[in-house]
Amino acid sequence: MHIIIVGAGNVGTQLAKFLIQEKHDVSIIEANEDRARHASNRLDCMVIHNEGNNLYTLEEAGIAKADALVCVTDSDEVNMIVCGLAASHFATKLPAHFDTPEDAASGKLAFPKLLKIARVRNEDYVRLIHSGGRQILGIDHFIHPGMEVARSIIKAIEHGVMGDIISFSNTPYELGSIDIAGGSAMDGLALSDYRKLVPHESLVTLVEREDEVMLPSGSTVLSGGDRIHILANGKNLPGIFHLAGDTHRSIRKIGIVGGGKLGSLIAEGLLNEVSFMNEHFKNRKSPKKHDFLLSLLSSLKPKSGRHVTIIEKDYRLCKELAARFPAALILNEDISDEGFVNEEQLDNLDCLIATTSNQELNIITAVYLKSRGIARTIAMVTGSGYAVMARHLGVDVVIPMQSVVTDSILSHLMGSGVKEIHSIGDGNIDLIEVEIGKNAPIINKPISEFKISTGGLLMLVNRGKVSFIPKGDYVFNEGDRIVLITRTGSQAEIDKYFNTDR
């Protein structure tokens, strides 16, 4: 695929790095000279120092033959305008040649339709594309960072904040990660004996040990301090995690540090109580906006009976939060003030979520308040590097915004066969959901014929209404939705087996 990325910030460069590893042709457009030079020095791709909302620049980047345009600049409006320019100017432009004489005679375009993706932070723009089911400025997908992160955080709360949790479509199976406690039942356990300890159907898919990330085998021996990723039915994960030294806790009293857009989205999802929300909408001038946000979060099915406390140091924002969330306790305080922490007895909370724009403050707050007795903490950080440090410091769940947004974009980019992509471990391990299409080469072949040179594992199969961890007698069927774990750079080999559209 030929993909043009407009914006060489953290998300743009992380996305480009992944795509280049997967052997895609990437062009980057960046208006800032320092960012453009930095990207050019780090990435093996074309980097153009210019404005993205320039037709000549888009042509120089190869828009006429591009498969996808991804706009991730710091400006919502620029991202949308660039997509609009591409849609209006290049949608009807004929390619320079045709695949065959028959294509030329029929007028068939030799190149696929340009896929256009825009990152936006204003939920009003996202609402436009969902209302009426029509495209806005020709944009195929809007990516809202706050909404993606809020979903991840609420999902973690629904699972007791036991570690990172990844759910899969139409299946009860989930992938959970947890650190093995020293002296627990799993400390010193050889995976060849795993089934003797764990009665439920489950699978250890990945082991992180210090700076090493392993796709384990039966000879792998687990140790205290290892971070393991386990696939199991969601209802059985708490029991399995207990064997690793963790104890499931009910999450009822929740504190949110930071009442900005992200904190507000999380509160919106947690306080999804009809009586509260209806009264709230009556007193607002634009209820439809919050109806829309609520609908996007409603699939998470938040439980009732939660008590939410929002801590925000901006007084004017606190007044807005109090009007918007009458069921929540709003505290106009600075979380870094130790006297406030002592006075308010925040250690009585079941979980604390740090969502400020300062990732260092989020980590320090989560670590400090956990040392004060809060059982579970969640911290929002920018990149995966801080995520690794925060986990080593004891934060239960760390949400790296860049990775969440990048995964969401990749899930739209990788073709109709690929449904979801998640980066896990050190960022060099990919979790990929694939639906086996018609005439895929792997159909009717046994699992023994699926081999990835860099190492890989078929974790889960969803066939109709039945989900199962495949055994040695599994045979691939058309329509099977499967979950793979592989090292980054294996996409071409996966295509060879499953023939996904690129």
Provide structural commentary.
This protein has 502 residues and is an alpha/beta fold. The chain has 4 domains: 2-143, 3-Layer(aba) Sandwich (Rossmann fold); 162-243, Regulator of K+ conductance, C-terminal domain (Alpha-Beta Plaits, 2-Layer Sandwich); 253-404, Rossmann fold (3-Layer(aba) Sandwich); 414-498, Regulator of K+ conductance, C-terminal domain (Alpha-Beta Plaits, 2-Layer Sandwich). It contains 18 helices and 22 strands. It has helices at residues 10-21, 33-42, 55-60, 76-90, 101-106, 123-130, 145-158, 194-197, 237-243, 261-270, 274-282, 287-297, 315-324, 338-344, 359-371, 384-392, 401-413, 491-498; strands at 2-6, 25-30, 46-49, 68-71, 115-119, 141-143, 165-167, 173-179, 202-209, 212-214, 227-233, 253-257, 307-311, 329-331, 351-354, 376-381, 397-400, 418-424, 429-435, 456-463, 466-468, 481-487. The strands form 4 sheets. A 6-stranded parallel beta sheet has the order 3-2-1-4-5-6, with helices on both faces. Strands 14-13-12-15-16-17 form a 6-stranded parallel beta sheet, with helices on both faces. Helix 1 (10-21) crosses helix 17 (401-413), helix 7 (145-158) crosses helix 10 (261-270) and helix 7 crosses helix 17 (401-413). The protein is globular, with a radius of gyration of 24 Å.
